[in-house]
Structures are given as C-alpha cells and as structure tokens.
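Input structure tokens:
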C-alpha cells in the first residue's frame, strides 16, 4: 500500500447517504473539516486527549482526529451540524444556549455530542454519571458548573419536564 492509495467509503452523515473516495491514510476530522466543510468538528490535540473533535459514530462518541475515515464504512456519523431538526435545535443545544454553558465555544460541539450520547443511554443521569461521561472532553474556560446544569436541563427538555425553546428563539 502506498500513501496515495484510496478507498471508496459509503456512510451516512447527518442523515444523508454519502459516497466518497478518500486516501486510506485520511482521518475522519480531515474528511469532515476539509473535504465536507463541516467546521463544527474542532481539532486541538490530534491525539484523542481533549475531546474537541468528538463525533457520534453509530451513536457512540469517537475522536474524529484519531479515527481513520475508512473506519466509518457503512456507519452513521453525526456531527454537531446534524443535530438541528425541523423543529429547531436539539434539546442539548437548547440547554447549552439557554444557560450559556460555554465560553470560548471550542470544546462545545464535542461536549454537546457527548451529552447527546449520554442522554440517549441514560435519560436522567445523576451528577456523578454526568461528570464521568463528559470527562473525556476538556474545557479550559469554564468550571463545568453551567455545563452540568445544561445536561440536567437537556434531560428535562427531552422528558417534557422543561419547555423547549420555540424554533425562532432557539436560533438566536
């Protein structure tokens, strides 16, 4: 195999079936950011340490910076750009926006996807479960207090205990 070898990938990205020819050495973060112009997948460490590049692959959080693109063959990939639906922002996005649970925002897309995966698995997590789950995403700006509150609010929005933001309000 040479550095110029390519492979054809078939996968689903944010609900859309995709076919792409990519070099076998291509990492997923480069495919998303450079080839598909999805800039929400941030890259900071490039070594699976910080969590800024987290995406969901078949519902499981994965570091896009250390996942080879060929590993997503046949998979469903969800990036932060794919969370918004016809009714507006995902409840996790709503909660983060409502509570301003971010500062610089660099880690936020990965954090939101981690939280989405957590709430899909554990709809009403306690604080320790939340802390353990988000520990793979390093936020250098916040004290995590508002992030923890946002996870709880997102859980409440999803369960109907808290009202969702109207579509227009959620986007502002």
């Amino acid at each position: 195999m040479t550095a110029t070898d390519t492979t054809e990938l078939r996968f689903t990205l944010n609900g859309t079936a995709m076919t792409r020819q990519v070099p076998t050495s291509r990492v997923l973060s480069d495919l998303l950011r450079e080839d598909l112009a999805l800039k929400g997948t941030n890259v900071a460490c490039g070594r699976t340490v910080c969590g800024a590049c987290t995406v969901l692959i078949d519902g499981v959080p994965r570091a896009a910076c250390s996942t080879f693109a060929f590993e997503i063959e046949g998979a469903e990939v969800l990036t932060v750009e794919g969370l918004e639906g016809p009714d507006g922002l995902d409840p996790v996005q709503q909660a983060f926006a409502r509570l301003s649970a971010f500062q610089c925002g660099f880690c936020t897309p990965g954090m939101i996807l981690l939280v989405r995966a957590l709430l899909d698995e554990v709809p009403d997590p306690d604080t320790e479960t939340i802390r353990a789950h988000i520990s793979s995403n390093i936020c250098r700006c916040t004290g995590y207090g508002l992030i923890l509150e946002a996870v709880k609010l997102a859980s409440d929005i999803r369960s109907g205990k808290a009202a969702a933001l109207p579509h227009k309000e959620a986007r502002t």
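Residues 5 and 23 are 6 Å apart (CA to CA). The radius of gyration is 16 Å.
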